Amino acid sequence: FELMGAEITQEAGYIEAKAEKLRGAYIYLDFPSVGATQNLMMAATLAEGTTTLENAAREPEIVDLANWLNKMGANVKGAGTDTIIIKGVEKMHGANHAVVQDRIEAGTFMVAAAMTQGDVLIKDAVREHNRPLISKLIEMGVEFVQEAEGLRVIGPKVLKPTNVKTLPHPGFPTDMQSQMTAVQAIANGESTMIETVFENRFQHLEEMRRMGLTVDITRNTAIIQGTRKLQGAQVKSTDLRASAALILLGMVAQGQTTVRKLNHLDRGYYRFHEKLKSLGADIERVPELEEIDD
Hints:
Layout: E1 7-11, E2 14-18, E3 26-28, H1 34-44, E4 50-54, H2 60-71, E5 75-77, E6 83-87, H3 103-115, E7 119-123, H4 131-139, E8 143-146, E9 150-154, E10 163-165, H5 177-185, E11 190-194, H6 203-209, E12 214-218, E13 221-225, E14 234-236, H7 240-252, E15 258-260, H8 272-278, H9 287-290
């Protein structure tokens, strides 16, 4: 934003940005961050001149945002590639737009079906948006059937082990890493998960150990020994995706599992427990237990 003419100050834990008028600039992102790409795209729409974003994020959500901005009168080209060019316009107008389906929520239900030998139709799911996840689940024996309303996912009786490495899009999404380790945890054999996008994103595996999981963690690599003999336990959520992963693992563990610290969950999933319950899960949300940190 400073390259675009904004004045940035940081004080008392807050970051403030001020500008009379933003101007176009050439910006190279050291990492293809989705949030950074989206914010710069929006800022550049009304800036003076042309803004070029190099090493931009390429996720489907970037393309969807560009489509919406263009409907409102913006001039955004190249979304979905690593170079996005935005020519500033003088004004924009309102527009109607249907937001693209949530590929991470869809992916989480794909995992749920895979883990429970389920047969689940995920309406409006876009196969192309979850190609790396689907490819890995197919390796594990999961069946996918494209239907008119969406994508049907059929879980196998026995899950095969698989190795996964997270990467920026179009690689395997880090936001599906926690859920994927839950599948690997009940596969028949040894699986490996390598996390290359974020640090300290294996904290949920420590909670899974409380359920009987055998896992060896070395820096950004986790070697998971799959088993169907996991036990229910009281576990604590460590982040948004970990919340979902622990809930899914609790569904297939023997006995009762209580997942606490669910304050992250609703940020990424709407009525998650209700959707699982409608699919046959024995699940109940108990608000008074959610924030207990013991």
